[in-house]
Task: structure prediction
Amino acid sequence: MAATKSPDILSLYMDSVLEHEKYPLSVYKFCKTNEIEEQDFYKKYASLDTIKHHVWQVFFENTMQVLHKNDGYAAMTRKDRLLTFYFTFFEVLLLNRSYVLFSLKGSESPMTVMGQLKQLRSSFKAFTMELIEEGNDDKTLSLAKHPVGLFSEAAWSQLLFILKFWLDDTSPAFEKTDAAIEKSITVAFDVFDNTQLEALVDLGKFLWKEKISKN
Result:
């Protein structure tokens, strides 16, 4: 069996999923179909499930690479950094929307679907924990500081909410997802900074309007 030179196993895996509309059943069959030596496969991945999880980690890493190439990113406010992350992350997902739709809206159980997001969850929470800790450092009263773990978990729940919104969004250029991102981030930072609840009301009106329009 002729081995390809430095095979891009991740891309081959995603292509295989989309072409066959199912996940590869075994490492042996996957490698044989794609002319990969099994030893080359196992140098990078322990199993096919490992690739499934790694796909989402790569989406995150690609997003962060784009952010850090922006010379102005480090000087942004915490809110703008999170907004920029979201917009960039969903641009990355858009480039891979067919795979994302298959992997998240397939017939597998919710637990299995969520399992593939494990690495993404860990990386995203670490990213938001840095923002939360930075915000706490700006607070003079200890009572005003927020539990980092609790708020990072809330940020993860927010990402899942927006991801679900994006999956179902049929608006041109996903403009409704952009609106949901902006309103959700505004709410999150208003809560964190203990500001008024006007943004929460605005988000509620937006989501209610979306619900009514679909009924």
